[in-house]
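Backbones bend. Our protein:
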Amino acid sequence: MLGIGAFLLSTIATPIVRRLAIARNFVDKPGQRKIHENPIALGGGMVIFWVTLLPILCVACLALLWNQQGAPAGLSEQLSQHIAGLAKRAPAALILVGCALLLHLMGLFDDKFGLGPFVKLFIQIGVAVVLSLFADVRLSFFIPSPLFSVVITVLWMVVIINAFNFLDNMDGLTTGIAIICSCMILTAAINSQQYFVSGLLVLLIGSLAGFLIYNFSPAKIFLGDSGSLVIGLLVAVASIQTTYYQQSNTSGQWYGTLMPLIVMAVPIYDFISVVILRLLAGKNPFVGDTQHFSHRLVKRGMTHRQAVLTIYFVTGCTGLGGIFLHQLNMFGAIAVFAQTIMMLLIIAILEIPGKSSK
């Protein structure tokens, strides 16, 4: 029901936000590194942020209130028994909402007026540090040092935030890839009976699916940084908080913890390869251009829609292997990693300009 509700709200809210954005001239205008020919409404990030995080904010506040003052008389016994657990998680949830709000507001300002890349990077690092230290969002498996755990966690969150931000270069690309990756991580969260993470992912998937109706090529509205940064943050946090391996479960294997790397192999590859290409060209790695995988596919003759669908399918292929990683023996895990590497090599080959490329 959460997912259906988020989908319906997103479907209803998106055209409203679009009309308001156009009325206030909050649009993305064609430019040198833009691939669209007409101004497109911005502000899609507002839909994703509020539809996904407002329910979490409300539940966290109600859980804290009811835990102190007692549950309402009409509340079912099944829900009442979870209030204490929700109240325990509420402070972390409120910190997550606050950090997402900061990125969202920063993205809105950047979409409208423009911000320096290093200012955005500094704020992203700050958000990641706050979540790691005060919300216990931390990678700790096989990492004995708390300090090293924080450093690795911050690095992972910043990379994933920027990976999804970088993907926002073609109609429906970030939205669709986020749906695919979130669905893959959701399977692990459900398998581990992690209801809070599952609820977050279901809300995110529902809001993204409703928005994709208007964001898929030809897009009627864009996410903007206000959306792509928040999506990256939520996917990163969900990937960290999900349990992929339990020592008490003899059927599981430790390499199941590497599932996020497999699931998000394509976004991470695109991020790293674009950064390297920009650095080799002597450019700022955080200033946009048209060197992404999606742009390469279009240069090879694909339409924008075909390029986006191709990347969807490649991400789905790598992600499906990640779903079953925790159930496989060592040989099966090696096969999944080999398959992922071969998929990335296909991307690399397609990115190499041919003789007829300009």
